[in-house]
Write a structure and sequence with these properties.
Length: about 100
C-alpha cells in the first residue's frame, strides 16, 4: 500500500490533532473502536445531548477518524485508523529527527 505524501499527511494532521484535542471526542473514538455505534446509543451512554454527540461525530468524520454507514433507519459510526496512523508516523519521524545529535 502506498504511503501518503508529506503534503497529504500534513493535511490529515491539521484535521486529526484538533479533533483529538477534545476529551469527549477521544471518548467517542474509544467507544466506536469497540463496535459500530449510533449517535443515539452514544447519547444514552454518555452525559451529553444527542446534538452535542452529533457535532462531535461530524468533527471526527471531517477529520477522517470515523466513517458513517446506514443500518436500517440508524446511521452508525466506526473508527478509521488511517489518519491516526499517518499522524503517528509523522510524529515518530519528527521525534527521531529531534533526537539525532546536531553537528
Amino acid at each position: 500500500m502506498d504511503q501518503p505524501s508529506e503534503q497529504q499527511s500534513a493535511v490529515s494532521i491539521e484535521k486529526v490533532l484538533p479533533a483529538l484535542a477534545d476529551p469527549m471526542r477521544r471518548a467517542l473514538l474509544a467507544r466506536a473502536a469497540t463496535q459500530s455505534v449510533s449517535a443515539s446509543q452514544l447519547a444514552k451512554e454518555l452525559t451529553i445531548s444527542r446534538q452535542a454527540i452529533a457535532k462531535h461525530l461530524q468533527i471526527l468524520h471531517d477529520a477522517g477518524l470515523v466513517q458513517r454507514k446506514r443500518q436500517g433507519k440508524a446511521v452508525v459510526y466506526a473508527t478509521v485508523s488511517g489518519p491516526i496512523a499517518a499522524t503517528a508516523r509523522w510524529m515518530l519521524r519528527t521525534v527521531e529527527r529531534w533526537d539525532q545529535p546536531s553537528d
